[in-house]
Amino acid sequence: MIVDRAGRPRWHAIWEGNPAIIRPEAWQSTDHNIVNGPNCRPYITYPFTAESGWTFDQRFRARDHVAKIYLTPDERAYGERLRTAIGRPYVLIDPWSKHHNLRWPRDHWQTLVDTCRDLTWVQQIYGDVVPLQRVTTVSTPSFRHACCLLATAAIYVRGESGMCHAAAALGVTQVTIWGGCMDWTVLGGYPGQHAVGVSLPACGRYQPCTHCDAAMRAITPDWVAEKLRAALSTIRVE
User: Fold this and answer.
1) What is the pLDDT of residues 138-159, one digit of tens each?
2) Under the phi-then-psi rule, with left for phi > 0, alpha for psi from -120 to 50, and beta for the rest, what region is 221?
3) What average pLDDT score do residues 224-238 get?
4) Is the pLDDT of residue 228 over 80?
């Protein structure tokens, strides 16, 4: 059972179908619990302040705890229909992040797409996200919809986020644009994850940060394109 810091059972739609995780209504006090949730993340050292930002627990390695996401047959069929409609193996991208310090500049994204016109680009769209030019857009109104699209992608490209961990869970090769905020040694290094721009030590700031802005802007579109093509050469694209 996944529980919060007070020991109360938690549930999230992304855990649906996972035989290792107990639903709250089936929980018993004797069941094995994993404490993970707001204010009790295993990779963050507590306490912290808005001014200090996060510090990362160096004992934790995300790559030692690769998740599992169990898509239903209907969800997998939905993803396959999307792939058929797109018509070619595609590079899935998500230029947006709610975390300012994890955003690669939008003009860099557009230059990347413009530079690699031989590739088929698909951008997931949700909320008020504005699409780039010369991309195919697909609406992903929920995390599981996004996973359906992700599962059938040839490769995934974006800044560090929960979706990068989902890509690892689904076994999708990814290029992760990784600036100066999050600690790669703690949260990165999954099999099939190709990082570009890792800047250490990580500052952990979640308020807008000039250090993170500079680190992200220094990651050029040519650098990401080179990493992307190298990553594509390692996989069989059907």
Assistant:
1) 999 999 999 999 999 999 999 9
2) alpha
3) 90
4) yes
> In the structure encoding, which two tokens stand for residue 126, read together?
């949700």
Q: Give the residue from 47, 41, 46 showing the smallest Cα distance to 62.
A: 41
- Can you give the residue ranges of every domain in the chain? 73-232
* Structure-token pair, residue 29: 């006090």
Q: Do residues 124 and 140 make contact, with C-beta atoms less than 8 angstroms apart?
A: yes
Residue-level pLDDT at 51: 84
d(CA 170, CA 37) in angstroms, rounded, equals 22
CA dihedral 104, 106, 109, 111 (to 10 degrees): -130
Q: Whole-structure pTM over 0.90, yes or no?
A: yes
User: How is domain 73-232 classified at the CATH fold level?
Assistant: Rossmann fold (3.40.50)
